[in-house]
Specification:
Strands 1-2-3-4-5-6-7-8-9-10 form a 10-stranded antiparallel barrel. It is mainly beta. The chain starts with a helix and ends with a strand. It has 1 helix and 10 strands.
Length: 165
Amino acid sequence: MKNVLPIFVLATAALYSCQNDTVTPTSKEKEKSRLERAEWLLGRWENNSKEGNLSETWVKNGNNAYTAETFIVLGKDTVFKEHSSLEETGKTLQCVITIPDQNEAKPVVFTMTKQEDNLMVFENPKHDFPTMIRYEHKGDSTIAEISGIQKGKFAKERFPMKKVK
């Protein structure tokens, strides 16, 4: 019995140490942040139509933000310009939109309300129009959609785009 006890103690200690042996996950194994899950948005997106040539280019801006410039050109004239950013603050992702000739060029913040692998929805119910911004990704295409109440009625605008870079 004297010889069994030390073997039992050693076996128990070995078993216990194996059970508590934690493996530190590599950075690839850690869960992606909300911003990293939106990485598919990075690059240049375009749509050329009779309403104009839409171009939206998203780039990584540091560790906590992606920024974009959006232009609609009709002929030789830029008829629309917008600056956007996706900013990660804590566990929240925000889409911040600034349009030079609207809202006194002050940024409007939309907070993420839904995120899936290929879908992001941002909302700001206090903004006049839009109150919702939606990005849906399918292969080499993305559809940006804005919606809300405009002139007393529900309105929605869709901007389908193909990735070019």
